[in-house]
Amino acid sequence: MRVTEKILQERLEKINRVMSTSYEIDNIPVYGGWAMTSNNRSHVVKERCSAKEMLSYLEGIVFGCYIN
Fold first, then answer.
1. pLDDT in tens, the chain (68 residues)
2. Residue pair 16/22 in contact by the 8 Å Cβ criterion
3. I need a surface site. Which of 11, 21, 34, 63 has the fewest CB within 10 A?
4. Do residues 41 and 24 lie in contact, with contact meaning Cβ atoms separated by under 8 Å?
């Protein structure tokens, strides 16, 4: 399965909606890929990683939001 920006943004929107946060993700391939930040990119939540690794990270957070 190919991981696209749309898929990552959908997962992130779900996290922001459920957790009432304002996380952002951005992609800079030269510096290593995707990163998750908050506070207008002043705080790094997840260091740069590949798209598949970021998808796994985001899905883990989504799963954690709905587990009892």
1. 899 999 999 999 999 999 999 999 999 999 999 999 999 999 999 999 999 999 999 999 999 998 86
2. yes
3. 63
4. yes
Beta bridge partners of 37: 24, 44
Take residue 50 and report the two structure tokens written for it: 């590949």
Residue 31 to residue 68: CA distance in whole angstroms: 37
CB 55 within 8 A of CB 11: yes
Structure tokens at 54: 């970021």
Q: Enter the pTM of the model.
A: 0.91
Can you say whether the dihedral through the CA atoms of 44, 42, 67, 49 is positive or negative? negative
